[in-house]
Amino acid sequence: MTGDARAPQRLIVTGEMAVTLPRHVQLRFNKPRDMWLLLAPERVLEPDAIAVTVLQKCDGTRTIRDISQELADIYTAPVETIEADVTAMMQDLADKGFLTEGRTHE
Question: What's phi and psi for 27, nearest 5 deg?
Fold first, then answer.
């Protein structure tokens, strides 16, 4: 293979990273099915209630650590445990093309 054709670089999700849904992905509530759906071209995911809560906070400005702290406060759970779970979930979604990097805090 020649030229500038390059495989997209894998996004590695970290606690300091802010993520957001790319333009081609939407989190929508489907009234007839009474459920949330994560929609992308030719793909649909059915996130559970906790995933929806996390995705609604992914505004491109809040970091994974910020979101995890908010959830730790809500659920009275260790932030380290929540951050590990949120990071793993976000990495899985990023690997599938459902997330992109937002702005990071300096």
Answer: -100, 115
Q: Is the pLDDT of residue 5 over 70?
A: no
Domains and CATH numbers, the chain: 18-98 (1.10.10.1150)
Say what the pLDDT of residue 30 is. 96
**Eight-class DSSP state of 24:** T
Residues 14/22/47/27 CA torsion (nearest 10 deg): 140
Two structure tokens written together for 27: 């989190």
State phi, psi for 26 to the nearest 5 degrees. -135, 140
Q: Which helix H or strand E contains 87, and what residues bound it?
A: helix 79-95
Question: pTM (2 decimals)?
Answer: 0.84
Measured N-to-C along each axis, helices 79-95 and 64-75 cross at an angle, to the nearest 10 degrees, of 130
The DSSP code sequence of 31-78 is TTTTEEEEEETTEEE---HHHHHHHHH-EEEEEHHHHHHHHHHHHT--
Residue 39 has pLDDT above 50, yes or no: yes
